[in-house]
Design goal:
This protein has a single domain, classed as Hypothetical protein af1432 (Orthogonal Bundle), CATH 1.10.3210. Helices cover 63% and strands 0% of the residues. The relative contact order is 0.14.
């Protein structure tokens, strides 16, 4: 794909713009270079793109990295997914229990933890942690919206929420050694959705997930047919902005076409915001 900013481009004199444009060209050519991103986590994303893959094959890939295997078992036994009974200790059983989207989520959480601990990324550890917490917040809200609206699968909603700012994380990690200093925040804001879309496509995630990441700020989006993941992500990102006090968050979320498509009233949005706090706690426990 050809990566483009999500809104009007920033003037080329900005060094951040030039840097981001170069990264976009790399991604458009299929080159992904994410420092300290575990090979096992990347392989999981690739192997799950095969619709005929067996749980035995998935288990082999996951078992190759003890940390990733432990993360998946933790998720399978968490209150978010486990309904009681004996703890799961077999990877194949865990794979069946959690499903492919939650395996992707566990792999992403594991990879992100490795990034935040990487010595070469120590100067931006605080920014990486903030990026991760933002992703967790949107994932919790997306999961709560999915349960309220019953129009999009909850596991897919959670994955989409966690991935919504993966483009921002990529920009932070790749810029860690730049001599020019910190990235221009406005340029990052304009470009990270399309950078995230390119990453999702390179990892061979389902096309509709990549498109939802790219279109997460299309507040006027209206379409035929049932609501989809992009509608849900639009609402979740705006809700997260309201919780965080963002001046860019829409004050009348129930009037957004995406919220209307999902059947979300003002009272439903309030319930979701309250429920998301419990969702966030469970998600944090599930993903370690």
């Amino acid at each position: 794909m050809s990566v483009q900013p999500s809104a009007a481009a920033t003037p080329a004199i900005d060094p951040t713009f030039q840097f981001v444009r170069e990264l976009a060209a790399e991604l458009s050519a299929g080159r992904v270079e994410l420092p300290s991103f575990p090979d096992a986590a990347a392989r999981v994303q690739q192997v799950l793109s095969d619709e005929t893959v067996t749980r035995e094959r998935i288990a082999l890939v996951i078992a190759a990295d003890a940390g990733l295997a432990a993360r998946l078992l933790t998720m399978a036994n968490s209150t978010l997914l486990h309904r009681g009974g004996a703890p799961i200790t077999d990877l194949k059983v865990a794979i069946t229990r959690v499903g492919h989207e939650n395996i992707r989520t566990a792999a992403l959480a594991y990879a992100n933890a490795q990034l935040r601990r990487a010595p070469e990324l120590a100067p931006i550890r605080r920014e990486l942690e903030q990026c991760w917490q933002e992703g967790m917040q949107v994932a919790a809200l997306a999961h709560a919206i999915a349960k309220e609206a019953r129009q999009v699968r909850a596991d897919e909603a959670m994955l989409g929420g966690l991935l919504h700012n993966i483009g921002k994380l990529y920009l932070l990690a790749r810029s860690s050694k730049r001599a020019a200093g910190k990235l221009n925040a406005s340029v990052v804001h304009e470009w990270y959705p399309s950078i995230g879309q390119a990453l999702a496509e390179n990892w061979k995630l389902p096309e509709h997930i990549a498109q939802a990441i790219a279109g997460q700020r299309d507040l006027e989006r209206s379409h035929e047919g049932p609501p989809d993941l992009q509608d849900l992500l639009i609402v979740a990102v705006q809700l997260a902005g309201q919780i965080g006090g963002s001046s860019t968050a829409d004050a009348n979320l129930a009037q957004l076409p995406a919220a209307a498509a999902l059947g979300l009233s003002d009272s439903a949005l309030v319930r979701i915001m309250l429920e998301s706090q419990t969702e966030l706690s469970m998600l944090q426990a599930a993903l370690g």
